[in-house]
Amino acid sequence: MKRTTFLLVAFTLCRANAIASEETLNQAMKALDAQVKSGDDKKLALFAVSRQTSVPEATLQTHMNATHLGYGELLAAESLAKATGKNVDAVLSMKHDKSWAALSKEMKIDPNSIAGRLQNAQKTVQAGQQQRLQAAKTAKPAEQGIRPVERAPAVSRMGGY
After folding, report:
1. Is pTM beyond 0.85 here?
2. How far apart are CA 53 and CA 74, in angstroms?
3. Domain boundaries, the chain
């Protein structure tokens, strides 16, 4: 009886961990994708994915155009490809109807490690966005498209002497 109870508890904990990993990974993917709102954000996101996967931005853009993946899924696919020595197309062909967490476990990669990369990428995008906002606030008027007020030439107070 104790052994049956132990096995039941162990199975339940493993199942709960699998669900938590999948939810964590899905939330991290959605959060990264939601962070991207403009063309500048797209550049930041590609930069962030590149930093996390060590894949050049041009290659990532090519993969994105070919696969129509979002930034979160692209990071997951590139991470799995890099970790297993496969290419992105091979990883995507293995995915079929599986979740990213299930695929990563099948490939013996911890889904939480991918979720961590996704969170780091999101932080990179946020930091870039904050830097852009800060730069816009401190920009000179001419850089913001505002013309400075023209002043009349200074007149000498000494009456021209």
Report:
1. no
2. 10
3. 22-135
Three-state SS annotation for 68-86:
CCCHHHHHHHHHHHHHHCC
Contacts 24+ apart (CB under 8 A), 36-40: 36/71, 36/125, 40/132
Of 116, 126, 113, residue with least CA distance to 28 = 116
Triad 140, 142, 148: Cα angle to 5°: 100
pLDDT tens digits for range 124-151: 999 999 998 888 888 765 555 655 555 5
DSSP class per residue in the chain: -HHHHHHHHHHHHHHHHHHHHHHHHHHHHHHHHHH--SHHHHHHHHHHHHHHHT--HHHHHHHHHHH---HHHHHHHHHHHHHHT--HHHHHHHHTT--HHHHHHHTT--HHHHHHHHHHHHHHHHHHHHHHHHHHHHS-GGGGTPPPPP-PPPPPTTTT-
